[in-house]
Structures are given as C-alpha cells and as structure tokens.
Design brief:
Layout: H1 2-14, E1 32-36, H2 50-60, H3 64-70, H4 72-77, H5 83-90, E2 91-98, E3 105-118, E4 127-130, E5 137-140, E6 152-158, E7 161-163, H6 168-173, E8 180-184, H7 187-196, E9 198-203, E10 208-216, H8 224-230, H9 241-250, H10 255-260, E11 266-271, E12 288-290, E13 301-308, E14 311-321, E15 331-338, H11 340-348, E16 350-360
Parallel strand pairs: 3-9, 3-15, 12-14
Antiparallel strand pairs: 1-2, 2-16, 3-8, 3-16, 4-8, 5-6, 6-7, 9-10, 10-11, 12-15, 13-14, 13-16
Length: about 375
C-alpha cells in the first residue's frame, strides 16, 4: 500500500500524466453521468448532413481505436446506402453530465497554426522546434501496478534517479538532447504552435513542411491568458488568442515571463499531411474535436450542441484529439481548419456546450 501511495505521489510530482483510451460503455467511465435518451431530443438532429457523418465515421474507423470501439460497424458502414438509418438502427444517444449533474460545459476552438521557418539557423530564424529529446524517459507503471495502467510519468535520469524533465524556462538554459526539425522566426508563433499541437511551416525556400505533436515534457498546461487576467493586463471579457498575441507583441520585454508561466513544452515530428490528431488521423474541419480522454475516450462519436459565430451549431463530431487545456467531461475543442478565418474564429470561441455520446447498441448497459 505504501508503495502504491509513493507512486501516486510521484505522479503528482511529475505532473504530466497521460491516459489511454477505454471502451465507451457509459457505466465504466467514472465521474460522468450518462442518461439514455432519444435522437428526437437532440437539437437540430434532423438538419444533419448524414452523408458527411457516414464519411467521417468511415474515416474514424481507420484508426485502431475506432476499430476497437465500433468493430463490425466499421465494416458494415462501407456498404451503407442510407446513412441516417444506419445511425438510427445501430446507436443510442446518452446525454453527458458531470458528477454533480450539470449538463452544460464549454466549447472552444483550435486551428492548424502556420509559421515561417528554415532548416538552417540564422539571425532571422533562431527559435528551434524540437523533436522528442533522446533523454526524455516515459515510464509505464502498469506492469507492476495494474491500477495505474492509464498513467505515464515523464522525466530524465540524473544520478541514477528519475527526476522531472526540463520545464519551458529550464529548457532555454540547457542544451536539449534533441534534434531540431526547423527554426522559426518568432517565439510567440512557436508558443501558439505548441498550444495548437500541429502546424504548417512555410520554409524560406517556399516549400511546406507539416509537423504534429509527438511528445511532451511532463508538465501540466497552464493558461497564459488566465495569468494575464490575474495580473490585470487583459480583462476577462476581452481575453482571446488575438488579445493575448497583441499584448505580447506590445510588451516584448515581458514575453519570456508570460510564456514561461506555462511550463509545458511540446515536441514535434514531421508529418506527411496536415493537422493530425492524437489518433493519427488528419483532423476534419468542424467535425473533429479534442476532449479530455479521461472522461471521453478517443475514437468515440458524439453529438455537440453549441454556438458558432453567434449562430446555433449542432453537429455529429468525433473525439480524435486531446489538449492540455481540455479538462473535464463537458469540455471540447473544435477543430476549425487552417487560415486566417479559422484563426479568427478559434481565437474568440467560448460558447456554452452540451454533449451526447453515441453508444453502439451492442454496448448498452442497463443501470
């Protein structure tokens, strides 16, 4: 018992624990209240593009987790002629509430970042974008402690001891044992690239490189937006990606202090396609969401009801990504694509959210 407690304390020390996915059986997901309901009660359900849903479902089945969840339905979907009937016949919606019974959460948005870079360091391109460091150790505890099978510890070895890896601030003061993918021309752009998790690098020879999340240093994400609000620099009513960027550009002497408030550091890998989520699938605009996989296992199909650009937004979506700022069962980050319009919408999106989980009928569990 003491050993188990010790490992739990270690997880708190290292901060950056990740969780694996699990089966989407409502009764097996802790601290979430699921209530069986009907399609008729889903707002805007009759206005859905069912052919788009079917196409997205088939794409989701290309992931190992999608196949694990939906099994024979993945194969069945390939031969469907009536997408709406396929959905009605094979799934049951469950409304999602937190452990207190609250059914309203928060929807935010993210996009594929675009930055300018070079394969060679220069006075213009001087901010490195790293791949996973060779000395970053990821510890799997499940072999010895099965009750901790969903957690990972990240750190490095020092004097034969596992200690926390470098924080964002510490990484600037130490030479990372990592390959540099490229160099970019803005530390601010690099920071937002890490927040988004994937991006397009426009190189100085006019070629394009795609990069995506590969690993992380083990520290929990801390919002610099909340920090600026706490400091009285930006009002809560005016906080957005755009207002944060504007403040940073207007206060160059304080940029490092603000960025270092978030100790989480993201490491990237080259990709052969655009924005890719945690399932390895290319994210689809307004159909892919990032969730807290502790509560909503990746690969699941959900129904989302919120507001987008001051209009109602009801959509069948797929949990295909995660994010350090996405915490809790009623929290989702909607992928909005790439380009200036996506950036504008994502930077300002903060809308009330309701979620439903679509459960295959074979997995329904009577409560």
């Amino acid at each position: 018992m003491k050993q188990t407690t010790l490992f739990l304390l270690m997880m708190t020390l290292f901060l950056g624990c990740s969780k694996h996915t699990q089966s989407p059986q409502p009764s097996k997901i802790k601290n979430v209240n699921f209530t069986k309901t009907s399609f008729a009660k889903l707002p805007g359900f009759q206005e859905q593009d069912y052919d788009e849903f079917l196409n997205n479902f088939i794409n989701n089945c290309k992931s190992r987790q999608g196949q694990k969840i939906y099994k024979n339905l993945c194969q069945k979907a390939l031969h469907v002629t009536d997408a709406k009937q396929f959905l009605l016949n094979n799934f049951t919606p469950y409304s999602i509430a937190d452990k207190s019974g609250n059914k309203e959460g928060l929807l935010t948005g993210y996009y594929e970042a675009r930055i300018h870079g070079s394969l060679h360091k220069s006075d213009t391109y001087k901010y490195p974008i790293y791949s996973t460091p060779k000395d970053l150790v990821v510890v799997d505890l499940s072999a010895v402690y099965p009750e901790l099978k969903n957690y990972r510890l990240r750190g490095k070895i020092h004097n034969n001891r596992l200690v926390p890896y470098y924080s964002r601030k510490e990484a600037k003061l130490n030479d990372l044992n990592a390959s540099v993918i490229c160099y970019c021309d803005s530390k601010i752009d690099r920071f937002f690239l890490q927040v988004q998790g994937s991006g397009k690098v426009i190189l100085d020879d006019n070629s394009t490189m795609y990069i995506g999340y590969e690993n992380q240093n083990g520290y929990k994400y801390k919002s610099i937006g909340k920090y600026l609000v706490q400091k009285g620099e930006i009002s809560l009513q005016n906080i957005s990606l755009q207002s944060i960027r504007k403040w940073l550009e207007e206060h160059p002497s304080q940029v490092d202090e603000i960025l270092d408030y978030n100790p989480s550091l993201i490491f990237f890998a080259k990709r052969d396609k655009g924005a890719t989520g945690a399932l390895g699938l290319q994210l689809r605009e307004k159909s892919s969401i990032a969730v807290d996989k502790k509560y909503i296992p990746l690969g699941n199909m959900l129904y989302l009801s919120s507001n987008l650009e001051k209009e109602k937004f009801n959509k069948i979506v797929f949990a295909q990504d995660t994010g350090g700022a996405i915490k809790g069962p009623l929290r989702a980050d909607l992928f909005l694509g790439s380009g200036e319009d996506a950036l504008k919408i994502a930077g300002q999106l903060q809308s009330p959210l309701q979620l439903w989980l679509f459960v295959p009928k074979r997995k329904e569990v009577d409560k």
